[in-house]
Amino acid sequence: MAEETIFSKIIRKEIPADIVYQDEWVTAFRDINPQAPTHILIVPNKLIPTVNDVTAEDEQVLGHLFVVAAKVAQNEGVAENGYRLLVNCGSHGGQEVYHLHMHLLGGRRLGPMVVRK
Fold it and tell me: In what order do the strands lie in the sheet with 26-30?
């Protein structure tokens, strides 16, 4: 079984966080180190360490992440001008917490997806 993460404790409300949405499948909360005016993490309540650990039984919850992302973007006022959804996988992908999560970034024009070298 995967090791519990800080996100698991946020989901259970054992650690304080600015939760903007929660239901039986996902929890969305503000990032403590925002990279844009709006920076919200959308996390499945089930611990899935990385995208590589996704199985067919996770399809419904992962689809729900996108439904919630659209709802949160609307509630945060960034839907009309646009926003970015980002999922990192593994160390080379920039994943820091090994509990699959989607970043919703918006509130200003965002730069390129990756730094070009």
Answer: 19-22, 26-30, 38-44, 102-106, 83-86
User: Partners of 39 in the beta sheet?
Assistant: 105
Q: Give the contacts of 70 (CB within 8 A, at least 6 positions apart).
A: 79
92 given a catalytic annotation: no
Cα–Cα distance, 84 to 54 (Å, whole number): 22
> Which residue of the set 39, 99, 101, 103 is catalytic?
101
Superfamily of domain 6-106: HIT-like (3.30.428.10)
- The strand ranges marked E within 18-108 are 19-22, 26-30, 38-44, 83-86, 102-106
Q: Name the helix (H) or strand (E) containing 113.
A: none
Bridging pattern class, strands 83-86 and 26-30:
unpaired
Q: Which pTM value belongs to this model?
A: 0.93
Tell me the per-residue pLDDT of 19-54, one tens digit each, with 9 for 90 and over: 999 999 999 999 999 999 999 999 999 999 999 999
